[in-house]
């Protein structure tokens, strides 16, 4: 089977959700971007709403210090959620908006703040019960024809929701939550669908927002112990094993690592060289569920 998205995304993706919380200067942000690229992490995941509509501008400000770097990056953004924010005083309530006008306006704003002329990938951020698949397809085709977005996908969609929109327009990925503390996409058909279509999902919160290593619940402790045992066997970090567990999936997922610590990125990249055997993979699954496979 050939790779699903050749040259579209790096195997590990850098997440920018909390970039506004890191307190960095533009130069420090640029250095983080450069260090990611040095590790082979060239894809950066954004959303218009991150940081209350501020993160893309912070990233764009840093990128403007080295504009030649843009040619080596893949910029991903998401839209479709309206937040109540000082940055958007016209928003009265938190809501979804998958209208053509909103999608196009969101992309125009992302391009301006990221200081780029195109997005490599645009995702609809959440399923919208009011989504009109034909209208979304028209918006996507307009943006594609204008050269403003290369490819399109969705985020947090069920297989049925993905299938509906994919019946109207070409989609290349579904960004979903998955980790050893969140197994839902393994069993609800999401990853089966991706493999059937030869598409690679993106995975957010691959370490469960850090709870795998900081949580005190019974499941967290059980998973952590199992990861540490495998890590000792392979001479690597437990985080590397947790990423390797995801990368073992045949749908070829792209974990998103959102950390200011470049060491966290190194641990994720190291997982690309660690292929867990099936017994080890299932042992970790069992540590998560609390019981052996059926």
UniProtKB/TrEMBL annotation:
GO terms for cellular component: cytosol. This is Oxidoreductase. Residues 11-283 form the NADP-dependent oxidoreductase domain. Keywords: NADP, Oxidoreductase. InterPro entries: AKR_Detox_Biosynth, NAD(P)_OxRdtase_dom_sf, NADP_OxRdtase_dom. Belongs to the aldo/keto reductase family. Aldo/keto reductase 2 subfamily. It holds the Pfam family Aldo_ket_red. CDD domains: AKR_BsYcsN_EcYdhF-like. GO terms for molecular function: oxidoreductase activity. Gene3D superfamilies: NADP-dependent oxidoreductase domain. The keyword NADP applies. It comes from the Bacteria. PROSITE patterns: PROKAR_LIPOPROTEIN.
